[in-house]
């Protein structure tokens, strides 16, 4: 599946136990585990998020708001573990 395949689909067909019916469903694009979904619907590994290199074609992996959020999560985790960065 590719991101361009995302959307609403309707199928007409024979379904065992149900007969000939129409079913609709929404198919959404999801990245594999430990990956970030870029705004241009491509996936990059989480470890490449906010590393100073534009891995997404649109640079959404380096967006300031995204990186500030990531930094905040790291700081919160360190506080919970009572680990302080070296000066």
Automatic annotation (TrEMBL):
<feature type="disulfide bond">
    <location>
        <begin position="31"/>
        <end position="43"/>
    </location>
</feature>
<keyword id="KW-1015">Disulfide bond</keyword>
<feature type="disulfide bond">
    <location>
        <begin position="38"/>
        <end position="56"/>
    </location>
</feature>
<protein>
    <submittedName>
        <fullName>Uncharacterized protein</fullName>
    </submittedName>
</protein>
<dbReference type="InterPro" id="IPR036055">
    <property type="entry name" value="LDL_receptor-like_sf"/>
</dbReference>
<dbReference type="InterPro" id="IPR023415">
    <property type="entry name" value="LDLR_class-A_CS"/>
</dbReference>
<dbReference type="Pfam" id="PF00057">
    <property type="entry name" value="Ldl_recept_a"/>
</dbReference>
<dbReference type="InterPro" id="IPR002172">
    <property type="entry name" value="LDrepeatLR_classA_rpt"/>
</dbReference>
